[in-house]
Amino acid sequence: MNDADFSWKKIIIPAFGPSVLFGIGNGAILPVIALSAIDLGASPAMSGLIVALIGFGSLAGNIPAALTTSRHGERRSLIGASALSVLALILCLVANHAAILALGVLIMGLATSVFYLARQTYLIEAVPVYMRARAFSTLGGTQRIGMFIGPFAAAALMHFMGLAGAYWIAIVALTAAGVLSFAIPELEAQPRTRDSATPKPGMASIAHAHRKVFLTLGSGILLIGAMRASRQIAIPLWADNIGLSPTATAIVFGLVSAMDMLVFYPAGKVMDQYGRLWVALPCTIVLGLSLLAIPLTHGLVSFVLVSILMGFGNGIGSGIVMTLGADASPAVGRTEFLGIWRFIADVGTSAGPFCLSGITALVSLGAGIAATGVFGFVAAAIFWHGLPHARTAKKGRA
């Protein structure tokens, strides 16, 4: 991308429009998958397992997603992911058995990994390095906005159509994402690395060549993923533990989501102008402190304040995983590197709730939540030693 030709106006719709629509689709169906499974005769435990398949599909799909995106390019991969998601949703909609629903949810997870990897690679090419963090923070923010809108849009249609309304909202949103991806041009101002005569490295060689980065900074983003996933469980469980009603818990979630969405762009600007460490440290430390503090709350006011603090910590970290991955990725084999990077992050997302549940079963809920908070300080130490401390030199217009 030629820095002199860069303009936010040129990329705002092609870069972020599909992400908002994809977020709306995911946000619409996530609250109703378990209910659909129960309607099809699944037990509560089996319903929870079916919901978890979307995360498992994303985890399992990261490496194939990297190979697909590397071979077919970002734009075609976006279109394909949208089409695959629509097919998965139709399968969920017409399912007459829990197994068919589970298959649809699993396919949705696979498509999600392709979509987000292609989106990340697309932005690396479209945005100059000196504005990279703002771009990825905005990408993370638009995904959050979509996830926030989706449940409300689904609820409106479900009032008339029942659970099917949520799937129809998702189908429309993801079809629109595919159409928009089809309509936008490739943002390529120069020959791409993958088109050069340089031999293309495989996954194994990329993993070996960059093993130090994966073991250091990769461990940090794994811990961020674990904390982010754990907080989504910690908030409702502790709310129930202190006697809050489901309605009050939902309102707390809304407040946390609102805080999450308010701070993503300022955080990206700080990363671009001062360096990644200026956001990586506050993000991990605030998340860690808030998780440690949740077991100390015993009433509505203190619980809400700590939860909002957690939303702030998560919000300022919007895009941090993608930004660090983009910074560390090589020019040759970039997509393969990012596939491994996303795999590491998703391992953390999958492992976090298991760690919380295991410690809760062995000790107590408070101990389980607090233990995940310790991850924040470990991650902060990793970033302190692994990221540059010097202020980033500013270039171009902020």
UniProtKB/TrEMBL annotation:
Classification via InterPro entries: MFS, MFS_dom, MFS_trans_sf, MFS_Transporters
Membrane-protein topology: Multi-pass membrane protein
Cellular component terms (Gene Ontology): plasma membrane
Species annotation: Pollutimonas bauzanensis
Keywords: Cell membrane, Membrane, Transmembrane, Transmembrane helix, Transport
Superkingdom: Bacteria
Chief location category: membrane
Lineage: Bacteria, Pseudomonadati, Pseudomonadota, Betaproteobacteria, Burkholderiales
Cross-referenced Pfam families: MFS_1
Gene3D superfamilies (UniProt xref): MFS general substrate transporter like domains
Domain Major facilitator superfamily (MFS) profile per the UniProt entry, residue ranges: 11-391
A GO term for molecular function: transmembrane transporter activity
PROSITE patterns named among the record's database cross-references: MFS
Subcellular location: Cell membrane
Residues that span the membrane, as ranges: 12-38, 44-65, 77-94, 100-118, 139-160, 166-184, 213-230, 242-265, 277-294, 300-325, 337-359, 365-387
Designated name of the protein: Predicted arabinose efflux permease, MFS family
